[in-house]
Write a structure and sequence with these properties.
Arc Repressor Mutant, subunit A; two-stranded antiparallel ribbon; 7% strand
């Protein structure tokens, strides 16, 4: 028996995720950033000196993909990497002064996306929507 995809919760969630990704691309494009590059910048803005693997996990990309993201950000002068003094083989990434400025500009642009999401949640509360997303994630992580 074939089931219509439209009312399926997982399908609707994926449609919403896809629309979110497109919106992120749209607001980040004028800054010359991709969503993965933004995720790395935003994460390093809050927590400097992270490894490639840490950033990949937080940006929802593979470590191999994050190597390319970091290389491009480094080539643009937004990120610098150095050897970890405690673990010689690991490299730690951090923002340059230009990287901090780009991260702040990108955060401001991303606020438009967040505001659209919050408006879509109304009249419910954002906290209720966050709680629902947490429950959905929890259901898939069992």
């Amino acid at each position: 028996m074939t089931k219509d995809m439209i009312p399926l919760l997982g399908y609707r969630l994926k449609l919403a995720q896809h629309a979110l990704h497109r919106s992120m691309e749209e607001v980040l494009r004028p800054l010359g950033l991709s969503p993965a590059q933004y995720a790395a910048l935003a994460e390093l803005n809050v927590r400097p000196d992270q490894t490639n693997a840490d950033l990949a996990e937080r940006a929802f990309v593979t470590p191999q993909s994050m190597l390319g993201v970091l290389a491009k950000l480094e080539g643009s002068g937004l990120v610098e990497r150095r050897q970890d003094s405690r673990h010689g083989r690991r490299q730690l990434a951090r923002l340059t002064s230009d990287g901090y400025a780009k991260a702040e500009a990108a955060n401001a642009a991303m606020m438009r996306v967040e505001e659209a999401l919050e408006a879509a949640v109304f009249p419910d509360t954002v906290q209720n929507a966050v709680d629902l997303m947490d429950r959905l994630q929890g259901a898939m992580c069992k």
